[in-house]
Design brief:
Elements lengths: L1 H6 L2 H20 L2 H12 L3 H26 L4 H18 L6 H18 L2 H9 L6 H29 L2 H23 L38 H5 L2 H30 L4 H26 L6 H19 L4 H30 L4 H30 L3 H17 L13
Helix pairs in contact: 2-7, 2-8, 2-9, 3-4, 3-11, 4-6, 4-7, 4-15, 5-6, 5-9, 7-8, 7-14, 7-15, 8-9, 8-12, 8-14, 11-12, 11-13, 11-14, 11-15, 11-16, 12-14, 13-14, 13-16, 14-15
Length: about 425
C-alpha cells in the first residue's frame, strides 16, 4: 500500500474523492431554487414557507458540520460520508410524499441537512487539507471545483426533469444520485486519515514519517492541536466567522430566490434554472484561481476580500437582470466570487490555527455561516411576500458583501502556530 502511494501520492486520490462527493452533494442541494415555484403553485404555500425548508436544512447542515468536524480529526472520512449520503438521499426520496410544511422541514430540512453536513466541505476539505501543506491552496481549490461542476451539471438537469415531468420526479432522481455516488466513492477513495498515519509526508515529499513522529521539517514546527475553546475566542476566528456568515447569507439568499426572481421577470424557465449552472461554471474558475493565488500571496485574506468584491458586483448586476443575458453575466460574476467561499475558509483556518485543529474549527465556522445562510432565504422570502419584489432583499445582500469585503482585511496574521 505504501509503495503504491509513493508512486502516486494518495492525497490526490483524496482530492478526487472530495471533488466528486462535494459535486453531487452541493449540486443536488443548489437545485433547490428550481423547486420553489412549482411547490408553491401546487400547495399554495408562500415562498417564505418553502424557503424555510432550505433554512432548516442549513441549520441541520451546520449541526452536522460541527459533529463531522470533530470526528474527522479522529476517524477516516469514509464512514462519515457514507452515513451522510444515506441521510441526504433519504431526505430527498421522502420529500415527494409530503403534504404539510412540517413534513417538508423534517424530510428535506432535518434529514437532508444532517446528511449534507456529513459529506460536505467540512469533512471533505478538512480531509484534503490534512494531506497538503505547500500545495494546500491548489488541492483545496481543485477539490472545491466539484461544487461548481456539480451545480453546473445538476441544476440544468433538475430543471429539465421538473419541466418535462414534475418536481417530485426531480427530488427522486437527485436522491438516487446522492445515494449511489456518495456511498460508492466514499468507500473507494476516502478511507485514509492523514499522511503520517501511513508513513508519508504531506504534499508527497520524498521520505517517510512514522505516524507517531513529529511534523516533517518541510512543514515547519511540530504540530500543535489547539483546544477548540481558545480558537473560538480568538479575534481571527471571530472576524473570519462574521465575514463568511455575511457572504453565506447573501449567497444562499440569491441561490434560493434567483430562479423565481428570473421567472417573475418573464425569463424562460430553463434559462432561469441554467443561471444556477452558470454560477457553477464560474465558480469552477473561481475555486481554482483563488486556491492557486492563495499559495502565492503574502496573506490569503487579500484573496478572500477580492472574492467578496466579485460577489458584490454580481449583486449589482442582479438588480438589473431583466434579460437572460444580464442574468447570465450576474451569474458569472457572482459565481466567480462565490468560488472563494469554500476554498478560502479551510485555507485561512489552517494558516492561522494549523491543519491538525482544522476539523473542529471548520465545523464551528460552518455552524456560524449556516445560521446566517438559514436566515438569508427566509428574510428574502419575507421581503418578497410583504413587498412583492426582491429589490430590497438584493440591496441587503449587497450591503452584507461590501461589509465582508473590507472587514476580512482586518483579520490578524498567523502567530506561528499555523502552517504555511
Amino acid at each position: 500500500m505504501a509503495d503504491g502511494a509513493r508512486r502516486f501520492y494518495w492525497g490526490w486520490y483524496v482530492v478526487l474523492g472530495a471533488f466528486l462527493i462535494m459535486g453531487v452533494n452541493y449540486g443536488t442541494r443548489y437545485c433547490f431554487g428550481i423547486f420553489v415555484k412549482p411547490m408553491a403553485l401546487e400547495y399554495g404555500w408562500s415562498r417564505s414557507v418553502i424557503s424555510a425548508g432550505m433554512s432548516v436544512l442549513l441549520l441541520a447542515y451546520g449541526i452536522g458540520g460541527v459533529f463531522g468536524g470533530r470526528l474527522i480529526d479522529r476517524i477516516a472520512p469514509r464512514w462519515l460520508i457514507t452515513v451522510g449520503a444515506a441521510f441526504l438521499a433519504a431526505g430527498m426520496l421522502l420529500t415527494p410524499m409530503i403534504r404539510e410544511p412540517w413534513q417538508f422541514y423534517l424530510t428535506y430540512g432535518i434529514c437532508g441537512g444532517l446528511g449534507s453536513g456529513f459529506l460536505g466541505v467540512v469533512v471533505c476539505n478538512s480531509s484534503v487539507a490534512k494531506w497538503f501543506v505547500h500545495q494546500r491552496g491548489l488541492a483545496i481549490g481543485i477539490a472545491s471545483i466539484g461544487v461548481g461542476v456539480g451545480t453546473m451539471v445538476l441544476a440544468p438537469l433538475a430543471g429539465t426533469i421538473v419541466k418535462v415531468y414534475d418536481w417530485r420526479v426531480g427530488f427522486i432522481c437527485m436522491g438516487g444520485l446522492v445515494l449511489i455516488i456518495g456511498v460508492a466513492l466514499s468507500q473507494w477513495l476516502m478511507g485514509r486519515t492523514k499522511p503520517e498515519d501511513y508513513g508519508l509526508l504531506p504534499d508527497g515529499a520524498a521520505g517517510s514519517a512514522p505516524a507517531a513522529e513529529h511534523e516533517p521539517a518541510m512543514a515547519g514546527p511540530a504540530p500543535v492541536q489547539r483546544p477548540l475553546g481558545t480558537i473560538l475566542v480568538d479575534s481571527r476566528f471571530v472576524v473570519l466567522a462574521i465575514c463568511y456568515s455575511l457572504g453565506f447569507f447573501a449567497e444562499m439568499s440569491a441561490m434560493v430566490h434567483q430562479v423565481p426572481y428570473a421567472l417573475d421577470r418573464q425569463i424562460d424557465k430553463v434559462a432561469a434554472a441554467s443561471s444556477l449552472g452558470m454560477i457553477g461554471i464560474a465558480s469552477i474558475f473561481g475555486r481554482f484561481f483563488f486556491g492557486w493565488l492563495s499559495d502565492r500571496v503574502r496573506d490569503a485574506k487579500i484573496v478572500s476580500s477580492f472574492g467578496f468584491l466579485c460577489m458584490a458586483v454580481g449583486m449589482v448586476l442582479l438588480l438589473y437582470a431583466s434579460s437572460t443575458t444580464i442574468l447570465f453575466v450576474y451569474a458569472l460574476a457572482f459565481g466567480f466570487g462565490y468560488g472563494a467561499l469554500s476554498t478560502m475558509i479551510p485555507y485561512l483556518l489552517a494558516d492561522r490555527f494549523g491543519r491538525h485543529s482544522l476539523g473542529a474549527a471548520y465545523g464551528m465556522v460552518t455552524f456560524c455561516i449556516c445560521v446566517a445562510g438559514a436566515i438569508g432565504p427566509v428574510v428574502t422570502g419575507y421581503i418578497y411576500d410583504r413587498s412583492g419584489s426582491y429589490i430590497s432583499a438584493w440591496l441587503v445582500n449587497l450591503a452584507a458583501l461590501v461589509v465582508a469585503t473590507f472587514l476580512i482585511l482586518a483579520m490578524k496574521p498567523g502567530d506561528g502556530q499555523g502552517e504555511h
